[in-house]
Amino acid sequence: MPIKIPDQLPAANILRQENIFVMPESRAESQNIRPLKVLLLNLMPKKIETETQFMRLLSNSPLQVDVELLRIDNRPSKNTPTEHLDTFYRQFESVSNRNFDGLIVTGAPLGLVQFEDVIYWEHFESIMQWASKHVTSTLYVCWAAQAGLKLLYDLPKRTRKEKLSGVYWHETNPEHNHNPLVRGFDDSFLAPHSRYADFAPDFLREYTDLDILATSGDAGTYLAATKDKRNVFVTGHPEYDSHTLHHEYTRDVTEGADPAVPLNYYPGNDPSKEPYVSWRSHGHMLFANWLNYCVYQLTPFDLDHFSEDAFTVDE
After folding, report:
1. What is the pLDDT of residues 171-187, one digit of tens each?
2. Binding of substrate: at which residues (predicted)?
3. Which CATH superfamily is domain 3-156+201-241+280-302 in?
4. What is the β-pairing status of strands 211-216 and 220-225?
5. Which one from 237, 248, 282, 294 is the annotated catalytic residue?
6. Which of 177, 216, 225, 287 has the fewest CB atoms in 10 Å of its CB?
7. How many CB atoms lie within 10 A of CB 246?
């Protein structure tokens, strides 16, 4: 089934060229189907690139998904045209009186910034408080996972000495093999990371009641969720395109940051060679599982009758 997005959104043409079914708004309105309403809070600087990446993953499902884009504030963007933001993005105030089936919160380049120093931290906190009462399931990605753990569990910011960058092996947790979020996963799988945040599994087990679903000896916790599946934390970037890590690496080189070469990304770890994708199938499966088991299977048919009491805890 398709995703429903504005006809003129740049992502629409890109996805059509990849033979992904994108439904025009006019056709969607004629169908007697209640699509899933998913809000994407895009915190990344290059918003067009990021929105396309996430929509690509949301499209790989038999469910019809109506995606709306949300911005954190109205500050001018250095990397996204103002016309694009004004045309396709909503301010929080315009959606705050509505309910949504799902919310995705992207990463942000704030790994070395303390939460209280994030310019929009108070507004971010208010959006997350709203989501707890108006959204069936929220998916936090990378920096958002760290921020979500702070808001839900008051966990302090934990930062690695060196940036974690590359593609790492992960293992699913045998204790939670029947959790629907990892249904269909291989015992070991690859996923990209690009972060300073530290998500040590033992630390999360000690200070939260999260189900730790997948971990890495090098990258720490990768996937965790509350038992009711209403909050899902992904510490890596399954949405990344084949060249996203490359662009980040070359940017840092140009800026004189002397970054380490992203691990397990270039053939022979040689940046002069074309990188290859080894995480695409896992990324699609993760998002399909989240849409199906954490959103579609739990959300009320009538969003106007959204109730926190309607959710059950099971595996």
Report:
1. 999 999 899 999 999 99
2. 163, 194, 251
3. Class I glutamine amidotransferase (GATase) domain (3.40.50.880)
4. antiparallel
5. 237
6. 177
7. 16
Is there a catalytic annotation at residue 93?
no
pLDDT tens per residue across span 3-57: 666 767 887 777 677 656 565 555 555 455 789 999 999 999 999 999 999 999 9
* Domain residue ranges of the chain, discontinuous segments joined by +: 3-156+201-241+280-302
**pLDDT tens readout for residues 201-233:** 999 999 999 999 999 999 999 999 999 999 999
Place of tokens 């915190």: 43
Active-site residue, selected from the candidate residues 49, 68, 142, 193:
142
Binding residue per annotation — 251?
Answer: yes
Active site residue 237: yes
Of 239, 248, 282, 294, which one is the catalytic site residue? 239
